[in-house]
């Protein structure tokens, strides 16, 4: 049953990923990208990582995609099929093919890394993923967390200043 569910989600993620690159309307591409993010969150749930699935939905499918859609609407991107150059499509297809071959080679010939760190699998299941991540983030990694929040604030202020029309 899990294998069937995995195959269905994989089919949906492949179709939505293809739609991201082939849709002529940028809003449709953004919606297909949101579907891809939700499928990725489903993979995280299947891997028993609920915190990562929640972060995937809230941060990427929620906040980042809202910013992308607002940017598309702000720039008022028009679709012009005549400007699409055929040689760029061929170059992208070749690069995508070589990336796929490289990924398949690494999946077949590569080895997975063994987990390292102070927490074993039993401790993680006993305490919980989210509690351990929160404890580490707000004790050992508090300064980088706060610096990231300041950088995001500066980026938001910069985006507002760039989008602001002259009076």
Describe, in plain words, how this protein is organized in 3D:
This protein is mainly α. The protein folds into two domains: about 1-80, Four Helix Bundle (Hemerythrin (Met), subunit A), CATH 1.20.120; about 120-165. It is about 80% helix and about 0% strand. It contains seven helices and no strands. It has helices at about 1-20, 25-45, 50-75, 85-110, 120-125, 130-140, 140-165. α1 runs antiparallel to α2 (about 25-45) and α2 packs antiparallel against α3. The longest helix has 26 residues, at about 50-75. The model has no long low-confidence stretch (mean pLDDT about 85).
What would the keywords be for this entry?
7 helices; Four Helix Bundle (Hemerythrin (Met), subunit A); 167 residues; mainly alpha; single chain
What's the SSE blueprint?
Layout: H1 2-22, H2 26-46, H3 50-75, H4 86-109, H5 121-127, H6 129-139, H7 142-163
